[in-house]
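Hi support team,

I submitted a single chain yesterday and got back a structure, but I'm not sure I'm reading the token output correctly. Could someone confirm the output below corresponds to the sequence I sent? I've pasted both exactly as they appear in my results page.

Thanks,
R.
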Amino acid sequence: MSDGTTDYARTARTTPTRYRDRATWEREEIHAILDSAYICHLGFVADGAPVVLPTLYARVGDRLYVHGSTGSRPLRGAADPGLAVCVTVTQVDALVLTKSAFNHSVNYRSVVAHGIAHQVTDPEELTVALDALVDHAIPGRSGDVRRPSAKEIAATSVVRLDLDEVSAKRRAAGPGDDEADLGLPYWAGVIPVATVHGTPEPGPATTVPLPAYLRDFR
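Hi R., thanks for writing in. Yes, this is the structure output for that exact sequence:
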């Protein structure tokens, strides 16, 4: 959990070997990246082989809650004493085109977190985690839906990863052409990439007006 400092502690696993100048351990920036995405990739080892699963997640303070079902391998493995995992989140902000094929790149923001994940079993914490998973995608949604039944909760599992060993990396720059290529007659530049939310479309069983939190949703 947070110790009130501005940065997370640097470790060998959170210090990149390439482009170290793009890395940051600043808590506020790491939280901002995590809060801006929807999907994480959860990596772990099962039966001696690496496994990486895309799944939903949410941040509550200095903890990540990762969603799954009670039958999934990582969640079964996260029972005591816990499961060693690596969680990654990436946002692509632009495609970067250069005058050489070699120097093409992307502008991005990414977070990598290492640690021991634990299955959430406390009923109060599980409620907090499940509400956070819903509200992470659509803020305010958890208070405007039917609460999960005991059967649904029994079929759902959540693992918790404390953000102790975590860092971010980002690129936000234009083309990095070699000086010898600058005069070549090829287009170079940046193509921005953004996630756009469309107009909400009601389902056939919807009889209520669009809630305010969806009218303002962007």
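A quick pointer for reading it: The radius of gyration is 20 Å. Let us know if anything else looks off.

Best,
Support desk
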